[in-house]
Design goal:
Blueprint lengths: L1 H40 L2 H5 L2 E8 L5 E5 L1 H12 L6 E14 L2 E12 L10 E10 L2 E11 L6 H5 L5 H4 L1 H7 L1
Parallel strand pairs: 1-6
Antiparallel strand pairs: 1-2, 3-4, 4-5, 5-6
Length: 177
C-alpha cells in the first residue's frame, strides 16, 4: 500500500512539473511571437516589450549594447522600422527551448527578414540565442544575440560545414512545409 501511495505522489508531482514547463514553454513562445508581431507591425514599443529592464542586445553585425533599457530598445527599433527595415516582415522559427532552471531559459531561433509582400525565404538568415528570465510569472528577454548566417552566403563555408546545412537548420525547413 505504501508503494502505491508513493507511486501516486510521484505521478502527481511529475504531472505538475511537466504542466508547469508546458505553460512556461508556451509563455516563452508567446514572448518570441511578441517580437515578431512588433517587427511586422513596425512597432518598436511592441518589439521591445518582450525585453527585461535592463537587457543586453547584440546585433547581427556585432554591435553590443549592454544594459539597454526597454525605452532605448523601442526607440532604436522605431528608427530602423521607419528607415532601412521599413515595409519588412520577420519570420521566426523556434529551434530549441532549454530550461536552465525553473526561471531561466535558453532559446535558439532561426530568422529571416524580407519585404512585406515576399514569401518566407528558403533559408534562414540569422540564428538568435536568447536568455529569458521569469520574474513575477512573466518571461522576459535578458540577453539577445543575433548572428548572421554566413553559411548561406558563402559556398566555401557551406561546403566545409561539419554536417549538411539542412541538418543544422532542420526546424526552419520543417516549419516551411
Amino acid at each position: 500500500m505504501k508503494k502505491l501511495a508513493f507511486i501516486f505522489i510521484i505521478a502527481i508531482i511529475s504531472n505538475s512539473v511537466s504542466a508547469q514547463s508546458s505553460k512556461d514553454e508556451q509563455d516563452i513562445k508567446n514572448t518570441v511571437h511578441l517580437l515578431q508581431q512588433g517587427w511586422n507591425s513596425g512597432s518598436g514599443e511592441t518589439f521591445a516589450s518582450a525585453f527585461a529592464e535592463p537587457h543586453d542586445f547584440i546585433v547581427w553585425n556585432g554591435y553590443y549594447m549592454k544594459n539597454l533599457s526597454v525605452e532605448n530598445n523601442a526607440k532604436g527599433h522605431n528608427q530602423i522600422f521607419s528607415t532601412f527595415y521599413k515595409g519588412t516582415q520577420l519570420f521566426y522559427t523556434i529551434d530549441k527551448i532549454k530550461f536552465l532552471s525553473k526561471d531561466i531559459a535558453l532559446v535558439h531561433i532561426f530568422g529571416a527578414v524580407v519585404n512585406q509582400n515576399e514569401a518566407r525565404p528558403k533559408d534562414p538568415e540569422v540564428v538568435i540565442s536568447m536568455v529569458l528570465q521569469k520574474n513575477q510569472g512573466v518571461w522576459k528577454i535578458v540577453s539577445f544575440h543575433n548572428l548572421d548566417l554566413e553559411a548561406f552566403q558563402n559556398e566555401e563555408i557551406k561546403k566545409n560545414a561539419p554536417m549538411p546545412i539542412e541538418v543544422m537548420y532542420a526546424s526552419w525547413y520543417a516549419e516551411a512545409k
